[in-house]
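User: For documentation purposes, I need each entry recorded in a consistent format: the amino acid sequence on its own, followed directly by the corresponding structure tokens. There are two entries in this batch. Please keep commentary to a minimum and don't merge the entries.

Assistant: Recorded as requested. Entry 1:
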Amino acid sequence: MICPHCLKTIEDGASFCPYCNAYVGPGDGPEHTEFVFCDGCGARLSPHDRTCPKCGRPAPGILSENTAASDLAAGRTAGFPRLTQEQIDTEVPHAPASAAAVLSDAADPNETCVLPAFDKDFGIPKVDIPAPVSLRDDAQPKKQKPKRKAHPDEDAYHKHKRHIPKPLIVIAVLAAVCGGAYWFVTADPMGVMPGFYDQFGQAAKTTFPSRQKGEAAEKESKQEDASEAVQKETVLTDDQLYTRLDGLYQTIVSYSDEDQIGEVIDSFNNGYLRTPLSTRQELSQSAYALRDQIKKTQDELNNLKVQDDTAYAEDIDHLKQLAQWMYERVDVICQSWDISLSIPDGESLSARQSEILAPIAQGANSALNQYDANVSAWKPQQRS
């Protein structure tokens, strides 16, 4: 059968529902249908229950004055007398108050202990709060600090806090960090900066050896620049010009000696297929150095200041052409060195030999032949 109260399936012929403890037997059932609640766990009980089905505590009003406490402690509750209707009526506790009743009994907000907020915009007057006094009658008075003047909008029950804008805090922190870093670098309290500078200088020399100049080389360079500036400003006479041209011719011819271009050619033939890369780099320095010297001679020829009607104009052009042919001879060797030095360690140099020698095969013979054919005839001769 189905319980008409909780709609759960129960046994046929049962008088009470085992789920909701409602009377489901024939007739109208007991006159009193209110539920009883356990004093121990608060579970809902039927008025006819003698013990709580959850905690086993006797139902309210089931014990009499003659019931022994030992029986209750021993759990012998089967012999407890069944409650009569009169006992049920007298022992049923009052139902607890509903939530609506509790809310309706709320105190008057004006009578609560919430302190009023002090805000001049809302017109709430301030209240003078008396200073706390000692609970002891014989307490000695202490010196009180002068009271801080309260802000007009300050809450008397909370301490006044000065709020510092966040941008000012960030600026102050950054200034402190930058100032500390600058002081650490300039003052160097740990003595690490000189060593750091030395290591940096050594690393720069290793990485860029051609850009590092000593004090002597730097002074020599400045002197050469000064002499070039003097040359640019001074117009040479024919006698002075011949002396200069004769010296420049001897310099150009010296480039074709065995200790100049001969060394460059020998270093190339012996080293462009060598490994490791450091060996090729060392052997290639002579070619690059000679090319720079020839370029310097060309610049000196181009910067000569001569008279407009000088008799050595043709000699100047001849020397410029000889210097150009010599430059081309050395430049093709440097181009081949560039290809060889671009091949890293581990790769086969023999497989790329034709690629390395391509610049020399294309331009070296032409410049060499023209230089050899004209170098003797183009020597400057003094003219009266």
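Entry 2:
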Amino acid sequence: MKTKHKLLAATATLGLALTVLLPPPAPLWAHDGVDHGAIAQPNAGVAMTDAVMLPKESQFLFGVRTALAGYSATYNRLTLYGTVSAANGGEGRVVVPQTGRIVSLAARVGQAVRAGQVLAVVDQTLDATQQIGLATERANTQAELRAAQQDYARLQTIADIAARKDVVAAELRLRQARQNAAILNGQARTRRVSITSPISGSVDVFTLAVGQQVSQGDELFRVLNPGKLRVEAQVFAQDLEKLPANAQFMIEGLQGQQGNAPARLVVFSNAVNPVNQARQLILELDNAGSNLFRAGQAVNVQVMGTSGSGSGKKELVVPTSALTDLNGKPVVFVHTAPETFKICYVQPGSANGQQTVLLAGDVNENDRVVSVGTYQLKSIYLNQ
């Protein structure tokens, strides 16, 4: 019995010593520093639903830039779609006046020509029926001319006894026969026609060759003057009230084409297209704009109220580069704190290459919206 009590006392003493000397138990770690034994903290690892956290260092690394949203009284713009075409004197189409064969070409593709310069010579060709008819008519005319000459010569030999009226009639017959013969001989010479340029400019692309047959009405050449261009646009009924009386116009290229140029209003037609109920707007480009655009090109026509007129309605605008989309909905990132960017869903309105009007959304004046780095912020948000 004493031995059993001694054993229990020794065991208790050893347990007390281990409790005092050994360190407290540490949390259990599995692999790569993942704490499988830690107690979950509230909101730990839960992604923010309407914002992105981005440290200052990452902002600098991604080159994030912001700009202020603000109201503009002069931004009031209307975007129309237009087509560039040649203005008056900007395009000349040369058609062949008669069926024939090209016997001479004096023009080259891209050649600068002046108005009235000869571009080609066409020799008229006749079919078999026309040739037979022309030969028959020529023979009859020559026979009539010889008969008139002989009759007139005979009357001249007996002029002292011939009736005066017979001599006058023979003279008139001879004169008419000579005129008819001259007309037929002139027709043979006028079968060769010189084709001239109607305007000054450069010869557009053509595929003609000497000896080629052409038909009456065929287009032989097109001469273009790139310094004379205009833009035609359609203004629909819902946009008429957005077109101020003192509007200014800017022409911009589509699909990433660089450059823009001002345009001058030529006419705003009062006639309405019965098909689409639109009115036609005709603008003319200046020489600088003519160097940027070409006939047939599709363009944007930006319609703006005159700056400082005070007639434009104030609209909230942000940089166009600030807009992106999340799940198909347009958004902007607003910088609300040094390392916080809030997601704001918006409804964009009219836009150009620099700014976009916001029709609705939780964006206010002087809010800092991200203008550079929206792609990186959206990627971080989607991977939170």
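Summary note for entry 2:
The mean pLDDT is 78.
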